[in-house]
Write a structure and sequence with these properties.
Oligomer: single chain
Structural class: mainly alpha
Number of strands: 2
Largest sheet: 2 strands, antiparallel
Length: about 290
């Protein structure tokens, strides 16, 4: 089945693509839904076109590393149980078809806004590979998977995420999310140039936050450098910078004379994270050269 994106949806997407700052995807979805004043007048192909664009904007990024319900990066907004107790997800990656993924690939090539370009490319890469794998493994697959899911999608998404850090992220939390996903994508395809680019962007952002924000989210920097440190190939100086980040956080949050930054919970978290790093360092020393 083919799809046709109605003009009103294309116009709204084009308008969003011209934005010079963050994009509220769910607000954009609401505009698109409101623009379809007579859904009954749409052809089946147009309904598929609306579905392709709107569903792309509704997929959620993971929280705290959660990869449910499909084991991929992107997740559903909510999950309900039907009368038979079967879970129903919205949006549902398993309802996506090849023509929808093909539309996402085309959109990722056409979009100028880095967050839109990243979202479409990342979805096509992540959901596309999931569906391609299921189609190959299932003996009951209705149609064979013929659409190519190229690693250039992961590269495009990683590049766009890094670009989006400067002026397009909604807030600091969102910026750390984008940096971590850029690193994850680069590492997943073993792209050394993009791994280095993601690492450099991560350290630049950390230094800027440390310089300008008294209460920046230092633990996000620790999360990424700890979880992806080996793949990053951190230098001795970079490892020391990661440790220094925690030492500074511990000193800052344990200083009861500074009411602005004193925070026993954050101080304890920094101490625990430091202990984790030092324990790992001592374990490596005991093991000796590998």
């Amino acid at each position: 089945m083919g799809l046709i994106v109605p003009q009103c949806i294309r116009d709204l997407l084009s308008e969003a693509d011209k934005a010079t700052g963050p994009i509220d995807e769910l607000a954009l979805v609401a505009k698109m839904n409101a623009a379809i004043t007579h859904p009954e007048s749409l052809s089946p192909e147009e309904r598929r076109g609306v579905f392709a664009v709107v569903e792309a904007l509704r997929f959620y990024r993971p929280y705290a590393g959660d990869r449910s319900p499909w084991g991929i990066y992107w997740g559903s907004q909510f999950t309900l149980a039907n009368d038979e107790g079967k879970e129903q997800h919205s949006p549902d990656a398993l309802r996506i078809t090849q023509d929808v993924v093909a539309n996402w690939i085309e959109s990722s090539e056409a979009m100028k806004h880095p967050l839109l370009r990243a979202r479409f490319a990342d979805l096509a890469w992540d959901v596309g590979r999931l569906l391609m794998s299921r189609a190959r493994d299932s003996e009951k697959a209705g149609q064979p998977w013929t659409l190519s899911i190229s690693h250039t999608l992961a590269q495009r998404a990683a590049d766009a995420y890094i670009e989006a850090i400067n002026g397009f992220a909604e807030d600091e939390y969102h910026a750390w999310q984008l940096l971590d996903r850029a690193a994850e994508l680069a590492i997943s395809i073993n792209d050394s140039a993009r791994i280095r680019s993601a690492k450099d962007a991560l350290f630049r952002y950390h230094r800027e936050m440390k310089r300008t924000q008294a209460k920046y989210q230092w633990w996000r920097f620790d999360d990424v450098t700890w979880g992806r440190g080996k793949a990053f190939g951190l230098t001795t100086d970079e490892k020391q910078e990661a440790v220094q980040c925690l030492e500074d956080a511990l000193a800052r949050h344990s200083d009861s004379s500074n009411g602005e930054t004193f925070d026993p919970n954050n101080a304890m978290s920094a101490a625990d994270r430091l202990a984790r790093r030092w324990t790992s360092k001592m374990t490596c020393r005991k093991r000796g050269p590998q």
